[in-house]
UniProtKB/TrEMBL annotation:
It comes from Nibrella saemangeumensis. This is TIGR03364 family FAD-dependent oxidoreductase. The keyword Coiled coil does not apply. Residues 5-373 form the FAD dependent oxidoreductase domain. It comes from the Bacteria. Belongs to the DadA oxidoreductase family.
Amino acid sequence: MNNIDLIVVGSGVMGTFHAYHAARLGQRVLLVEKDAKPVQATVRNFGQVVPSGLGERWFGYGRRSLEIYRDIQQEYDLTVRQNGSVYIASDEEEWQLLNELYDRRRAEHYPCHLLSKTQTLAKYPVLQAGYVRGALFFPEELSVEPDQLIYRLIRYLTNKYNVTYLTNAPVIDCYPTTGGAGITLSDKRTFRARKVLICNGSESRLLFPDLLLNSDLVVSKLQMMQTVPMPQVSLPGNILTGLSIRRYESFTGCASYAQLSTPDHYAELKKWGIHILFKQALDGSFIIGDSHEYAPAAQAEDLDFQIRDYINQLILTEAQRIVQFPVQAIQKTWAGFYAQTKQEILEHDVNDNIHIITGIGGKGMTSCAGYAEQSIRRLLPELYTA
Ligand SMILES: Cc1cc2nc3c(=O)[nH]c(=O)nc-3n(C[C@H](O)[C@H](O)[C@H](O)COP(=O)(O)OP(=O)(O)OC[C@H]3O[C@@H](n4cnc5c(N)ncnc54)[C@H](O)[C@@H]3O)c2cc1C
């Protein structure tokens, strides 16, 4: 393949949305994936697109992502559904935070509705009445099917924008060339372009390991489960609960956050970074999670490959306090891993033509589409000056 403008290494949601925005601007893009298909964080998540939970800069990228997902969905089925997101408060403190976020999001002209306990139970009858204090609903937010979205998005890019997609292609070297940059694959093939962008996710050992392993990147391991299909149960949209309210960035900016106490029954759950989310998949099954364990990128192997049943049982016991359907009817359980950094994202320019972007943490499905748009604007400013 000749005359490539941009090589994107890594076809998770970060790399693929960069490929999308560059290709839309007429760039000839080569997207390279080390595995036969992407199987990392981008396919192991809930598929919740929830800008309301993000801090201010990322809230903006999340809002833009909603538009991008909707625009593509009109042309090509990416599995995007607009069922909204709902945060369910279980006590007075969480309810107070919901009220404060409601005021802020309304001031930002972001559609939302506060629901009383009665209204919440009327809208979501499968919730346990004893759990619910009230809820905050964001009608514009989206859900996607994580086990399908990225494959469909890549197909859309190759069909519509002539993006070239190479799989089974681990990139093991990346270097400057005259007027650009080059890559070498593990089978020794080489490619050159004007620029290379590396969106490696939590893989830190193949390219620029000195830089990545000595950065502040931390890898998080999340335990997830999926129930058997329950088409008779309806709990649509992204369901976020009390511990999510206590955890998500958007609430840390609320006035009463500093006074938040931790009820005793949350202590063990918080120790494992557990908060309870539900997402009903198209077949009626529920994705339920999650927990968070952390290790520096250089010691990511310490996170272990095993699923701890103790953590899953903590999650399911709390989940059963929230919903009436039988959450113990689990058909699958898995772990997902993502990289994160204190800076919210790791953006590193190796030189003018080689760039690394990783460490987006737990917000990638929500914000990559919008984030990548401004990122391409930064990386390829010449495309915007004409
Ligand atoms: C369990 C779980 C639940 C989550 N839930 C949500 C959610 O509901 N909503 C939300 O917004 N976010 C969620 N997230 C976060 C979101 O999934 C991530 O932020 C996002 O998927 C990260 O995308 P990425 O492209 O950076 O990384 P990845 O998905 O890890 O993709 C990186 C890709 O690069 C490839 N690669 C790496 N190095 C090379 C190389 N040298 N050569 C070739 N290919 C390479 C890898 O094989 C991989 O396919 C969740 C994450 C997890 C783990």
